[in-house]
Amino acid sequence: MTNQKLKLLKEKSIQRMIFFERTNDFLRKFFFPYKLYRYLNIENHYNVSFVFPTVLFVESTNSCNIKCIFCPRRKSRKKIGFMEFNLFKKIINECVNYDKLFELFLHKDGEPLLAPNLTKMIKYAKEKEISKKVAIATNGILLNEKKSLQILKSGLDELVISLDAVTPENFEKLKGVPASNFEIIEKNVKRFIELRNEQGLTGPMVKLKIIYMKETKKEINDFIKKWKPIADSVPVRAYITWAQSVKDRNINPVKVSKKIHPCLAPFNNLAINWDGEVSVCCVDWNKELIVGDTKKETIYNIWHGKKLKELRIRHLNGDLKGLQCKVCDFRMSLPRMNLLVRKKLMRKTLAI
Ligand code: SF4
User: Fold this and answer.
1) Which tens digits make up the pLDDT trace of 102-119?
2) 31 C-alpha to center of ligand 1: Å?
3) H-run or E-run covering 271
């Protein structure tokens, strides 16, 4: 079996575990296969990282062409902009000096296909071989034939398309743009896969994504049935409120745990905004958790800097008062089973 086939098989089994666990109360409470998978730490990007982050989000742009009702970005006070290619190069050039990242995402709060330098950025990151995976998540509206060919040429490893609906009516309701875009996206995705296959390419892996929430609950099975034969993977993602910044549309609202469990994000990843300022994680849509600026500092110095260290200590001590982390449902969704081991490792990062 080729590497690509193995990768696909693994991806599909993980998605299946997540789907069953997410949509089945019994599995969630008593069996939790996906939590077990993460507990066993089969993929060590859930590990704590000592020297340099293992996952990087680099925001190519925070501009967007749709208005999803479950996204807080329009409330943000941030300026809209596009990352300059020289800044991007500086970031990537620094990464060359460290172990390969597990994942490099070229999106954060915007639509990456709006960024004029996107394919140049993907190519550069791939040439420098700084990450095992380079990925983007897009709404797919701008994925026309010309853009598709550019992306295919760039060497991208993973393309996630957030379609989030089965019917044009629901799409319009959830995404805040005319239903006509629904057909455009469907056509774009199918053509993209066709072009990839015609060229005999094995990548990028194409994932068609839907969020599990009140408005999509009834459509989930149809979504999977429809896209399974076409896309490489059909992930069903959990709904998050972006630290209580949008209405909770969870089917079973997330129970806020009284115990504060440390979040893994400050111990293994960073999110660089388009202007170079560094957020602790991709949930930081409004720059509440800025820990540095890549225009003035190195990623290494930010990673080992005072601000991030203080935040890590607060997470480990369960002292999140006044921080968005306190109400963040992404933190709460991280695995807790191996907490003791992880806490020990997390404390070790503070000594470095
Ligand atoms: S708790 Fe949420 S906001 Fe805080 S670092 Fe973790 S993911 Fe980010």
Assistant:
1) 999 999 999 999 999 999
2) 26
3) strand 269-272
